[in-house]
Amino acid sequence: MSGKRIIFMGPPGSGKGTQAKLLEDRYGLKQLSTGDMLRAAVTAGTELGLKAKAIMDQGALVPDEIMVGMIAERIEAPDCAKGFILDGFPRTVPQAEALGAMLAAKGMKIDAVIELRVEDRILFDRINKRVAEAGAGNVRADDNAETLRKRLTVYHEQTAPILPYYGARGLLTVVDGTLPIEAVMRELEGILDAC
């Protein structure tokens, strides 16, 4: 099971981060968050990072070609030798096409796109439970229903429409994100072992 290239999809709070960490530990895959990559490239002062910083400083979105360029550089790192999990990219069909073209140029491809599916109402139940259990003093500032509502709107309007693109290519597998963590992990193991 070497060199697996996975894309994780799913709404905020669906468990992508938890499952990605388990897959990192189990298979040696590296979770790649485009937000983290962008911040690291800016901090390191790489050529792409400087371009991205200039764009972000103007309040604009970083163009797809810069993001794909950062991913292209990042997946060459030794910690990606056993494969990677993309989390947060692609978000649009043009990004998916650019990612596919970049990987093809490297002789690579996406092996699986996994959607952790959780209904919105369950995500709200989860966040309300987390807030209640943590107590008022221990809650992250963005851990609230209003922030979740905004993030879900963005997900449904901008990211979820990419799912049919991967579905039409036979790459999309849906996993029930409401299952216990161990059960979701078993499903993911089955998907990875089959691709």
TrEMBL record:
The entry's keywords: ATP-binding, Cytoplasm, Kinase, Nucleotide biosynthesis, Nucleotide-binding, Transferase
Assigned EC number: 2.7.4.3
Binding residues annotated for AMP, in chain numbering: T34, R39, A60, L61, V62, G88, F89, P90, R91, Q95, R140, R151
Catalyses which reaction(s): AMP + ATP = 2 ADP
Stored InterPro entries: Adenyl_kin_sub, Adenylat/UMP-CMP_kin, Adenylat_kinase_CS, P-loop_NTPase
GO CC term, one of those recorded: cytoplasm
Region (NMP): 33-62
Alphabetical list of SUPFAM superfamilies matching this protein: P-loop containing nucleoside triphosphate hydrolases
One Gene Ontology biological process: AMP salvage
Pfam families assigned to the protein according to its UniProt record, in alphabetical order: ADK
N-terminal signal peptide: none
UniProt pathway annotation: Purine metabolism; AMP biosynthesis via salvage pathway; AMP from ADP: step 1/1
Subcellular location: Cytoplasm
GO molecular function: AMP kinase activity; ATP binding
Stretches of the chain forming a coiled coil according to its record: none
Domain of life: Bacteria
UniProt: ATP binding residues: G13, S14, G15, K16, G17, T18, R130, L179
Protein function: Catalyzes the reversible transfer of the terminal phosphate group between ATP and AMP. Plays an important role in cellular energy homeostasis and in adenine nucleotide metabolism.
NCBIfam families registered for this protein in UniProt: adk (TIGR01351), PRK00279.1-3 (NF001381), PRK14527.1 (NF011100), PRK14528.1 (NF011101), PRK14531.1 (NF011104), PRK14532.1 (NF011105)
Description of how the protein assembles with itself and partners: Monomer.
Family from the record: Belongs to the adenylate kinase family.
Domain comment quoted from the record: Consists of three domains, a large central CORE domain and two small peripheral domains, NMPbind and LID, which undergo movements during catalysis. The LID domain closes over the site of phosphoryl transfer upon ATP binding. Assembling and dissambling the active center during each catalytic cycle provides an effective means to prevent ATP hydrolysis.
Name the record gives this protein: Adenylate kinase
Species of the source: Pararhodospirillum oryzae
Name of encoding gene: adk
